[in-house]
Design goal:
The complex is a heterodimer of chains A (about 300) and B (about 425).
Chain A: H1 15-33, E1 37-40, H2 45-58, E2 67-71, H3 77-90, E3 94-98, H4 99-104, H5 120-131, E4 135-137, E5 154-157, E6 185-188, H6 196-206, E7 217-224, E8 227-230, E9 243-250, E10 261-263, H7 269-278, H8 283-287, H9 289-292, H10 297-303
Parallel strand pairs in A: 1-2, 1-4, 2-3, 4-6
Antiparallel strand pairs in A: 5-6, 7-8, 7-9, 9-10
Chain B: E1 2-9, H1 16-26, H2 32-44, H3 60-65, E2 72-77, E3 81-87, H4 94-103, E4 107-113, H5 120-131, E5 136-142, H6 151-165, E6 172-177, H7 201-207, E7 221-222, E8 225-227, E9 239-243, E10 248-249, E11 254-258, E12 262-271, E13 274-275, E14 279-280, E15 284-289, E16 300-302, E17 309-320, E18 331-336, E19 339-353, E20 358-360, E21 371-384, H8 391-394, E22 395-399, E23 406-412
Parallel strand pairs in B: 1-3, 1-4, 4-5, 5-6
Antiparallel strand pairs in B: 2-3, 7-16, 8-9, 9-15, 10-14, 11-12, 11-16, 12-13, 12-15, 17-21, 17-23, 18-19, 18-22, 19-20, 19-21, 22-23
Helix pairs in contact in B: 4-5
Classes of the chains: A alpha/beta (about 300), B alpha+beta (about 425).
């Protein structure tokens, strides 16, 4: 076929490849313009995809910034194992900001309900200050939650790490403004335009490794407020809650005291894609105690410096 | 599956949120927990029907004040396409928000209330879609149920809008009579409008041809980042990473690098999945060149017989986005492709009244949400194209040097 006969639609990327290119552009932009970036890595599927995309953005060189895990101490062991394996595989430096350690030295205090969701924010901010990070990559997506839907890809944070939804920098074309004063920082969300289903299609196409808890397995669980909680050292049934064994998987991975499992037989990526495509519940609505607290739970936490 | 980005614009109460809620609902993009929430709030508020507009309800700060603060992004997909909606509020700071949402849009939907016809805001929205060169514009004449699906009403609005659009640079314009509330002409063509021969809104969104909207002629590759692995295995590797901003680039092509002006040959192109024979917009790639030239971020790779204009004098339509007005003599930071420079406002030629398109050349400043023609002088040359020819090499942002806030957006008018 001669070049002249090629039509514009021959030069078209699939939507997933457009999203991937956009994410790579954003990640490279930060690496080029910001002094000390860092990638937040929880071991969840979104951060796993983000790390995978970051590696592709700089190949054959290594990822030119460290990754940080905000360790609440309430971890699924499979996730910690996965974290360490990924860090070794990509040859990146791992920084751990530990909530239990911060509790021990009196920097933060354990909340009455035992959740460390809120107190991880000061620990995150302290670690940023200590390491002088000017930009933090997060795997948040705009389809997750109503506050996220309005956040910029480059999200400016003041010296307290706070997000001000009424005072965001306009973001046009693919031009991003990461200029800051000392002490201020930028949170960067390269996967902003991805949906949960996009993440899973990408995991399938790219063979992205994930912690095994994302796939269906047998687990001892109990029912709490309509959510299936795992019976483990962080989360024991209260009176009236009885445990039973069920085939479940996790749709999100967060603090083990708050993150619920869903009943599922999806043991591989394709089965999960079929399940997610047919599901009638949002991932946060179905599995996250932290977002159920109030209607504006996420908005409030972001204003305090959370992702 | 490909991607369509579209922006929605409408005045207050045109039913924009209802339309978006309807699109999400009818494409089954609404989850049960979201719908239950909306049903509950609708009941609490004493509504007679489930108010789909509540689906796009945003922040608490907005609900408390009953306003929309900012651009919100929504997502849905059909078997044919994935869609990203930039939902831009109609009132507060509407110019700034619509310019932001329209900058990346393939298509803009402008909502008009059938009972009120074309109002001042509809004209503004049409003008902004034209200024931002959104390739496709759809006028959704909403609330047709409230005018009993009267064809004359629709025809009048259609004729009036087409007449106004003729004065603008809108390449593809279409109007559709709809009722977002009842879902008429949204997914399926409605029996309520037998006189309407066009397609439903969703059918149009799924089928509008956008592949030709990109510039595939003029090769533009702004160097974003230099990749040097410094490893034994890749000791001499030197790759220029960036996103294709125009044209089709191939290994073996002769290229010229700006600003140096040196020419060389493309040795290889590494896409994200390995070697690539053709790179085009919006691919993120790494370009390797035969000769070792001194190339860094902000340089532009193009073809020797097809180069952008390298200049320090920039003429542009600028949309001003902050309270402190733009005045001649002001110094700003300009970000254009991957290049950043300082810029002096040499001249403000006129302010455009976006309702009447009247040019006011007696003005000395541009206020918040004003648009005007500005001449800038930059500290170093930028490699520019006319915005109408290439949105990526024709658009720039202006940043305040002191506050670091993005204060303006510019669309280059380059006649050379």
């Amino acid at each position: 076929m001669s070049e002249k006969t090629k039509a514009p639609h021959d030069y078209q990327l699939s939507q997933l490849r457009v999203l991937e290119s956009e994410a790579v552009h954003i990640i490279r932009e930060i690496a080029a313009e910001m002094e000390r970036p860092c990638l937040l890595f929880s071991g969840g599927k979104d951060s796993a995809v983000m790390l995978h995309v970051a590696a592709k953005a700089f190949a054959p060189a290594r990822i030119p910034f460290p990754v940080m895990h905000i360790d609440t101490g309430h971890n699924f062991p499979e996730v910690l194992e996965f974290r360490d394996a990924e860090v070794a595989r990509f040859g990146v430096q791992l920084i751990i900001a530990s909530v239990p350690e911060a509790i021990e030295r009196g920097f933060v205090r354990e909340e009455p309900n035992g959740s460390r969701n809120r107190i991880q924010t000061p620990v995150l901010l302290e670690a940023c200050e200590k390491h002088k990070f000017t930009a933090l990559f997060g795997g948040a997506r705009r389809d997750e939650e109503r506050a996220r839907a309005k956040e910029r890809i480059f999200s400016f944070r003041d010296e307290f790490g706070q997000w001000d939804p009424k005072n965001q920098r306009p973001e046009l074309w693919s031009l991003y403004n990461g200029r800051i004063h000392a002490g201020e920082s930028i949170r960067v969300f390269p996967l902003s335009n991805w949906t949960e289903l996009d993440i899973w299609h990408y995991i399938a196409e790219e063979n992205v490794a994930l912690p095994p808890i994302y796939y269906a397995h047998e687990r001892e669980v109990f029912d709490r407020d309509g959510m299936l909680m795992a019976n483990n050292e962080f989360c024991r049934p209260r009176e009236g809650e009885t445990t039973f064994t069920a085939t479940v998987r996790y749709r999100t991975v967060g603090d083990a005291t708050l993150t619920a499992a869903v009943r599922s037989d999806a043991r591989d990526v394709q089965a999960i894609i079929d399940e997610v495509g047919a599901t009638r519940q949002t991932e946060r609505g179905a599995t996250r105690g932290d977002d159920r607290a109030t209607e504006a739970a996420m908005e409030d936490r972001k204003k305090e410096g959370y992702f | 599956m490909d991607l369509l980005r579209f922006a929605t614009a409408g005045s207050v109460d045109d039913g924009k949120s209802t339309l978006i809620g309807r699109l999400l609902y009818d494409t089954k993009s609404i989850f049960e927990d979201q719908l239950e929430h909306v049903e509950k709030v609708s009941r609490d508020k004493g509504r007679e029907y489930t108010d789909l507009a509540l689906l796009t309800d945003g922040l608490r700060a907005e609900r408390e004040q009953g306003i929309t603060i900012d651009v919100a992004y929504r997502y849905f997909a059909t078997p044919k396409r994935k869609f990203i909606i930039a939902d831009t509020p109609g009132h507060i700071q509407y110019t700034r928000n619509m310019v932001t949402g329209a900058s990346t849009a393939d298509l803009a939907i402008i909502l008009v209330d059938a009972r009120h016809g074309l109002v001042e805001q509809s004209r503004r929205h049409a003008f902004l879609a034209s200024l931002l060169q959104v390739p496709h514009v759809v006028v959704a004449v909403n609330k047709m149920d409230l005018v009993d699906w009267d064809q004359d009403v629709y025809d009048r609005i259609h004729a009036e809008f087409t007449g106004f659009a003729a004065r603008l640079r809108i390449r593809d314009l279409m109007t559709i009579p709809i009722s977002a509330l009842n879902g008429d002409n949204i997914v399926e063509r409605s029996a309520a409008s037998p006189w309407y021969a066009g397609s439903s809104l969703l059918h149009h969104l799924e089928n509008v041809h956008v592949a030709s909207d990109r510039n595939l002629i003029d090769v533009r590759f702004p160097v974003q980042y230099v990749i040097r692995p410094h490893t034994k295995e890749h000791h001499d590797y030197r790759g220029y990473a960036g996103t294709m901003a125009g044209g089709v680039l191939k290994p073996g092509d002769t290229v010229t690098v700006l600003p140096s002006g040196f020419s060389t040959t493309v040795e290889a192109i590494d896409a994200l999945d390995g070697p690539c024979e053709e790179a085009y917009s919006p691919m993120s790639v790494v370009v390797r060149l035969k000769d070792n030239l001194d190339i860094s971020r902000g340089d532009m790779i193009c073809r020797p017989n097809n180069m952008p204009n390298a200049t320090q004098d920039i003429d542009a339509m600028v949309c001003w986005m902050t309270n402190t007005p733009l005045r001649p003599g002001m110094k700003l930071v300009i970000k254009h492709t991957t290049r950043t420079a300082r810029a002096l406002v040499k001249d403000l030629q006129y302010r455009l009244d976006i309702n009447t398109l009247h040019r006011d050349d007696s003005t000395g400043e541009l206020g918040l949400n004003d648009i005007g023609r500005v001449r800038l002088r930059t500290t170093q040359p930028l490699f520019i194209d006319d915005y109408g020819k290439n949105r990526d090499t024709g658009g720039f942002i202006l940043v305040d040097e002191t506050t670091n806030v993005t204060v303006g957006a510019g669309m280059i008018t380059d006649s050379s």
